[in-house]
Specification:
Pfam families: Aldo_ket_red. InterPro entries: AKR2_Oxidoreductase, NAD(P)_OxRdtase_dom_sf, NADP_OxRdtase_dom. Helix content is about 40%, strand content about 15%. It is of the alpha/beta class and about 325 residues long. It has one domain: NADP-dependent oxidoreductase domain (TIM Barrel, Alpha-Beta Barrel). Strands 3-4-5-8-9-12-13-14 form an eight-stranded parallel β-barrel, surrounded by six helices. The longest helix has 17 residues. The radius of gyration is 19 Å and the shape is globular.
């Protein structure tokens, strides 16, 4: 894959990246996650599997990897892979996030898998934890699921601390978005400046064929120089052949028809839509297995066209409906 800058940051990334949300903990909301990890959900088994997926990603040219403090042991698994494979600094761009604590204690049936805390003290502690694991490999540190309701974008002391850390350590600062108000949240984040400089260098947003509502806001942010990272490109498995929900049969037929016409899988088709967007710097694969990663990577060869664009536009749901359905997804 040909590398390109992440917005105007100068940090080089591949058009497809690897997100570690499903690789660092035994429980997650992706469809079929439990089946994917059957027989290897212990810490050692998951670390070996994470390393195998990272190896495949590296071999195929992926040069952006995304983790978070709340992704179980994802940062630790990534750190041990970087060390074991002797990956030089800056050879792969690494992003992580702060703002949630992992609270499942390696259980799938936990009452709470992660708890949000967007406070100054929590940033300070998680910043040190991420740096201790990832060191100078850490290129981008993001607020995890920033929302207007959390108050994180109006906490002036906290925002000043983010800017100080950015300036002192040369780390890019970003935010990830969540919920039906992604566009409004991004608009507020873009207003935040210190010494005339924008605080945030990059944004990570949910955007897919079912939830495309942030497209215009992301395109505008890209034009202004922000790096754009796309997460949940497959809607946690809803845009794959694993989606057997009876209420989605018509949509599945629409996807299958275009996938057959373009000679690709449904997951590759859905990711190709995002890869066709000039404002999308990195589209994350959330694969749990090497097989799924290799299937996702075939999106790079899909000849997305106007016919597919028109045929699949009706898949879009209202943001409120999309996020309500996502909230109801079962872990594993």
């Amino acid at each position: 894959m040909k590398l390109k800058p992440l917005g105007h940051t100068g940090c080089l990334v591949s058009p497809m990246g690897l997100g570690l949300a499903a690789l660092g903990r035994p429980g997650y909301i992706n469809l079929g996650h439990g089946t994917d990890l059957a027989g290897r959900a212990d810490v050692a088994g998951m670390e070996a599997n994470a390393h195998a997926v990272l190896d495949a990603a590296w071999e195929k040219g992926i040069r952006y990897v995304d983790a978070a403090r709340s992704y179980g042991k994802a940062e630790a698994f990534l750190a041990s892979w970087l060390d074991a494979r002797h990956i030089p600094e800056k050879e792969v761009a690494v992003g992580s996030k702060w703002g949630y604590r992992y609270t499942a204690d390696w259980q799938v049936t936990a009452t709470h898998h992660e708890i949000k805390e967007h406070t100054l003290d929590h940033f300070s502690s998680q910043w040190e934890e991420s740096r201790a694991l990832l060191g100078k490999h850490l290129d981008l540190y993001q607020i995890h699921s920033a929302t207007l309701e959390s108050g994180v974008l109006t906490d002036t002391r906290l925002l000043a601390l983010l800017f100080e850390a950015k300036q002192a350590h040369g780390v890019l600062m970003g935010l990830s978005l969540s919920g039906p108000l992604q566009a409004r949240t991004l608009a507020e984040a873009r207003k935040i400046r210190f010494d005339g400089l924008p605080l945030f260098d990059a944004v990570q947003a949910t955007c897919n064929l079912l939830e495309p509502s942030a497209q215009t806001a992301l395109a505008e942010a890209s034009d202004a120089g922000m790096g754009i990272i796309i997460k949940e490109a497959l809607a946690n498995g809803r845009l794959t052949d694993r989606n057997t929900h009876p209420g989605f049969s018509r949509q599945t037929t629409m996807l299958a028809t275009q996938a057959e016409r373009l000679s690709c899988s449904i997951d590759a088709l859905a990711m190709a839509w995002l890869l066709s967007k000039p404002w999308a710097d990195v589209v994350l694969s959330g694969a749990t297995t090497t097989e799924h990663l290799l299937s996702n990577l075939k999106a790079l060869d899909v000849a997305w066209d106007a016919e597919a664009e028109e045929a699949l536009a009706p898949l879009a749901e209202s943001p409120e409906a999309y996020w309500a359905f996502r909230k109801g997804l079962a872990w594993n």
